[in-house]
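Form 7-S
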Amino acid sequence: MAEVYLTEEGKKEQEELLAYLKTVKRQEVSEHLKAAREYGDLSENSEYDAARAEQGRLESKIVLIEETLRTAKIIKDNKKKKGEIIVGSTVTIYDPEFDEKNTYKLVGTLESNPDNGLISNESPIGKALIGHKEGEEVAVSTPDGGSFTVKILEVK
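Output:
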């Protein structure tokens, strides 16, 4: 299993989701099961089967989040090395091919949301940037076998 990285904010979000699933969502699923049982013969009760499947998915998700929280490496802001890009860094890069600047925060895969500027440490850009510093040019390999170069303008 690959290492999972979470920022402190990401850990808090996962803990809040876990609490919601264990309290509110479990209660909802329990109510669905109870209502489905009232339909009669369980051997031919599709509502009951659907409620049991929903319960299974919920419990699997709870176990996955608990395991993730137990094993995840939490990235603390005070652990950042001066100027070196690690998970948790905010990076501004310049792409000369498209003449544009982009700012990203490098996060673990669970927190990744490129539309909001959160890129995974396992993404092509994330992998390429890790360990580099401001001012360096970095070649980024693309999934199709190509590559492009970006310049690191700022690291926070």
